[in-house]
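Sample A.
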Amino acid sequence: MPQDRPDDAFAWIDAQRERRDRAGLVRRLSPRPADSPLLDLASNDYLGLARHPEVTAAAAAAAQRWGAGSTGSRLVTGSTELHTTLERELAEFCGFEAALVFSSGYAANLAAVSALSGREALIVSDAGNHASLIDGCRLSRAEVAVVPHADPDAVRKVLGAAEEDTREEAAEAAEAAGAVPARRRALAVSDSVFSVDGDAAPLAALAAACRAHGAALVVDEAHGLGVLGEGGRGAVHGAGLAGAPDVVVTATLSKSLGSQGGVVLGPARVIEHLVNTARTFIFDTGLNPAAVGAALASLRLLRREPERAARVRTVAMGLYGRLTAAGLTAVRPDASVVSVRAPSPEQAVRWAADCRAAGLLVGCFRPPSVPDGISRLRLTARGDLTEEQVGRAVDVIVKTAPTA
C-alpha cells in the first residue's frame, strides 16, 4: 500500500483505489459509439424516444432558433418561451397547478427537498430513496429520520412522535410571544418507483400518513413518469394525488422523455417559492434549448400515443416472467425496471461483461449504489423492444448467469 508523503497531497487516493480494486468496486467509463450494435437493456430510454425522428428534429430546431446554450441562469437570460411552454404542458399533463424546469432531475430533487424544509424542519426519508433525495436531505440542514423501505406506518409513527414532542414547546413559545402556536414544518420524501428493484411506493398510504400530521409529501417520479398512471402521467396521478395542495412531484426529462433536465410540479405557491429560494435554480445555468425542445416533442408524442406507457410495462413483465421461469431470482417489476440478483459484486460485474460480449448491454448495481448490499443486474424495459429482442435478451442473460 502506498505511504503518504508530506509532499503528496493526493496519496490517499491511491490507497482508496487499492481498496476498491480488492473489493471489486472499480467503476470505469465505457463510451458508446453513435450506432452501437448492442441490444440495449441498460439505458433509461423507457419509451424509446431519444432517437425518435420527431424528438431529434425538435431538438435541432430549438438549437437553431434559440442557440446551443441557454446563455445564463433562468432568472437572467436562461428562460425562453420554450421553457415556459414545456412547464405549462408538463403541469397540465401531470395534473398540477405549475411546474419549474431545472438543468437535471438531480438538481430538481436538491431544490425541492432543501427549499421546502430547513434547519427547524423534519424530513422523513425512505431507506431506498435515490441519492439525489438523500443529498437533498443532507443539504437541507433539517432533522432527517430514515425509515424502513416502503413503510407508511413507520412514516406515521415518526411524524406523530415529532408532533407530540414539539407540541408543548411550540405552545409555550407562542404563548410567550402572544401568537398562535406554530406547527413544525415536516415532509416525507420518497421515490414513486425505486431505482434499484423497480418496486412502487405505497403513495396513497404515505399521503394519508402525512395528512394525519400536517406534513407535505415530496415524490420523485423519475421512473414513474411515462410509465405509470393514465397514459404515463405518473404514479402520483394514478394514486389520485395529482394537484393535491400538500403534494409535490419531481421528475427527470432524461428517462421516458428521452431528453435531459428535471422538473418540479406542485401548487403554484410552491413553485413561486422555489423560484425565489432554490439554489440549484437561482445559481445554475438554465436547461439548454435543444433539451427543452426534445422533451416537449416527447411529451406531445406521449399524449398522442398513450399506449406507449402500457407497452413498457408489458415488456417488463415479459422479461420478469421468462427470467424467473428459467430459475433466476428477479423482483417483480411495478414499472420498467427489472432487477436480477447476482451472487456477489465480482460475479455481477463478470455477468454484465459476459452479456456485453454476447451483444447485450445491461446495468450492474453493486455496493455502495445498493442500500441492501445485494448486487444485481438491472434491466430496463423499453417500449420499442420487439418480442424477438426480449427473447434474445433473456437467452443471453440465462446462458451467462453465474453459479451461486
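Sample B.
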Amino acid sequence: MQVTRELFNDVMVPNYNPSEVIPVRGEGSRVWDQNGKEFIDFAGGIAVNCLGHCHPALVNALKEQGEKIWHLSNVMTNEPALRLAKKLTDATFADKVYFANSGAEANEAALKLARRWALDVHGEQKNQIIAFNKGFHGRTFFTVTVGGQAAYSDGFGPKPAAVEHCDYNDLAAFEALISDNTCAVMMEPLQGEGGIISPTSDFIKGVRALCDKHNALLIFDEVQTGVGRTGDLYAYQGLDVTPDILTTAKALGGGFPIGAMITTASIAAHLKVGTHGSTYGGNPLACAVAEAAFDTVNTAEVLAGVKEREQLLRDGFAAINEKYDVFSEVRGKGLLLGAVLNSKFEGRARDFLVASTKHGLMSLVAGTNVVRFTPSLVIPLEDIKEGLARFEKAVADVVNG
C-alpha cells in the first residue's frame, strides 16, 4: 500500500493537520523523508527525542527487553519498572513513583492525588486548584481545565470545578487568589506552550512560600522541562525551589511513551490500593527504554553539554537577528528556546516553521509569535551549525517575501 499525506485525510480523525512531509528514517539529529530529503531536527518530537533518533543505548534496551517480557498488568510488578523508580527517587527529592503513559496522565494522577490528600488531611472544603494563564498540562478533561488556555477546554460541557487561574510571574495576583481552601498549585517551572516563559526568582520562591503558608501542595509539571532539557536533570534543581509533586514524561522515554508522577512518601500514602491505576503504566518495555535514556542523560557530561549547545544556538540566533532584525528576544533555558518575533513579524511564527521545513530544518512554534526549538540534548555541534544555516535561509525567505 502506498502511504501518502492524502491517506491521512481518508483514515484519520481531523484534529491534526500534519505537514506533507512523511519521515521514514532517523539517525542522531538527522531525519529522511519518503523522497530521501534530509532534515536537521531542531524539534525533537516536541522535546521528546532527548537523545535523537535511534540512539544505540535505546535501541539496545528495546531489543533486549523485547526478547524478555513486554507487558505485565499491575497485579504484578517487574524489574525495569522498579529499577527506573529507584533511579528517579535517588536523583530527586521524591520517595515514591507512579508510572503512566503520558504527561497528561501523570498530571491527572498528580491532581487526583492532591485532591485526595486534601480531603483526607484537611476536609472537603480544601479543594481549590490554582494554575496559570497560558499554562499547558495535557488534554484529559481535568488537565485541560487546569491548563490556562480556555480555547483548549471550551466546548466539551461542564468543566471540573474549583479550578482558578492567574497570570504567570504575577505574585500579587497569585497571593490574592490563594487561601486556606487551596489544595494545590500546578505550574510549569518554565512555561512551554505558553511562549517559553521563565519564572522570576521572586515569583517562583514566592509561590512556594505561599503554598507553605496555606498548606497547599506545589505541583511542578516538568513534562517538557524534565530529563535534562534545561541543563539540570529537572528544572526545579536549578531554581532553588522544591515541589511536593513532580510530573515527568516526554524525554523520559526518549521517544517511547512513558510518564511518571513522583512525590514524597507522606503524600503518596493517600493513593491507597484501588484509588488510581493504569493498564500500561509501568510497562516493562517502556521502563527498560526509559531507564537507558535516564542513565544516558543523567551524567555531568551530557548536562554540561546542554548548556554549551544552548550558547551555540543563542549565538547563532543573535547573528541571524543582526542581519535580518526579526526577533525581539530569545527566551528559555538549556535546549528549550523560543525566538520571539518582533512587531514587524508578529503572529507569523508558522511562516518561519513552514520556511524552515522547505530548507530541511524541523522546528516548532509556541503560539503564533514564538518559534520554538527543542533539539536532542546530544545533537552534534556540526548539526547545530548546519541547522542554523538552514534556519537563516528560512528567515531570509520570510523577510524577502
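B remarks: The mean pLDDT is 97. The longest helix spans residues 300-324.
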